[in-house]
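Review form for a predicted model. The reviewer records the input and the model, then writes brief findings.
Reviewer: anonymous (R2)
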Amino acid sequence: SHGYAWSRMLIRHPALNGGESFSASWDRTHQYTLGLETDLSRAFRLTAAWVMATGTPNVLAYTDGSEAERLSVYHRLDASLAFRGLLAGRTFTAKVGVYNLYDRDNSWYRTAVPVAVASMHPGRLVQAANVDVYDLGFQPSIELVLKF
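Model under review:
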C-alpha cells in the first residue's frame, strides 16, 4: 500500500511574527508511507512500513540566521514478523517487531540548551548550544496474545 499526504499547518496570531502566518512546530508538509504485508505461510506474516516526511520547522531559525528553516528529512523503516497458531485450543499470536530498523537519527526538533563551560572570564560560565532532539532509535518489541 502507498499513502501520501500534502498538508500545511499554519498558525497566525497578532502578537506573534508580526501577525504573519508561520508553520506550526509539528508541520510536515509532505509525508509518504509505503507498506508491505505478506503471508510467508499459514502461520507467519511479515509486515514492513517505510515512512518519509519533510523535516519539521526549525524554531531556532527565527532568531539565528545560520539555522536552516526546516530540519532534515525524516525517514524510518519499521518491520515485524508474526506467528499465529493454536495453544491449548486457543488462538495464540507471537509478534516481534522493530521500530526504526536502520537506527536513523531522525531530528524531532532542535532547541537551545544551556551548557556549562570552563572559562577564565567571570560571568561566562554558561553558553547556549543548539542541539537536535531525536525520535526513537532502534526500538525492538515483543507482543504475545492468547485469546480465550
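Findings: The chain has no helices and ten strands.
Further findings: Strands lie at 2-6, 10-11, 22-23, 30-39, 44-53, 74-87, 90-99, 107-116, 126-134, 139-147.
Recommendation: see findings above.
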